[in-house]
Design a protein that fits this description.
Distance between the termini: 47 Å
Number of helices: 6
Order of helices and strands: EEEEHEHEHHEEHH
Strand order of the largest sheet: 2-3-5-6-7-8
Radius of gyration: 15 Å
Strand content: 15-25%
Structural class: alpha/beta
Number of strands: 8
Shape: globular
């Protein structure tokens, strides 16, 4: 299966989730957040296509990484390809984080024609940072997110409880460090 990515994979990120991470930069975004830090990823025709098998081969060779992060661009525009990658990450005992400009509620809204595809991907994600970047809510002291409207969601607990459960361990840490 093909996936459109914006740039080569980052293998040693320490800012896109906890620990050492492999980051997949998806190409294409419809949110157009003002002052987005990845505007080069917006064009739906930009970047280049690779086969998911290439990414999975790289994922299978990881040694020190704690997990992978799906970023972009907008990962939820390529759910099927990312589901394939996320499944393999879980087989390799890696945690999976994803960023999205959509809210969790928008992804699973009954009127969203992609809600079942979104749910299939979410089932393989541990933590979701949701919501558009809002320049008026930008805060450089936040960990793993750019603006205070964005939530760090524990996806497994949220799906089980059927209500938003925040990943408190990351939010508490940022509150303690800001003091």
């Amino acid at each position: 299966m093909k996936i459109r990515i914006a740039s080569p994979i980052t293998f040693d990120s320490i800012v896109d989730g906890p620990g050492l991470r492999m980051v997949i930069w998806t190409q294409g975004c419809i949110h157009n957040c003002e002052e987005c830090h990845n505007p080069q990823t917006h064009s739906l025709r930009g970047g280049y296509e690779v086969d998911t098998k290439e990414i999975i081969d790289k994922l299978n060779k990881l040694k020190l990484q704690r997990g992978i992060t799906l970023s972009g661009g907008e990962p939820f525009l390529q759910t099927e390809a990312l589901e394939e990658i996320a499944k393999e990450a879980k087989v390799n005992n890696l945690d999976v984080w994803s960023y999205t400009g959509f809210t969790f509620e928008e992804l699973l809204n009954d009127r969203n024609p992609n809600r079942f595809k979104n749910l299939n991907l979410l089932k393989h994600i541990d933590v979701l940072v949701d919501g558009k970047f809002e320049k008026n809510e930008k805060d450089i002291f936040l960990k793993f997110r750019g603006s205070s409207n964005q939530r760090i969601i524990d996806v497994k607990k949220t799906l089980k409880e059927k209500k938003i459960i925040l990943a408190e361990e990351y939010i508490e840490r940022e509150l303690c460090e800001a003091k």
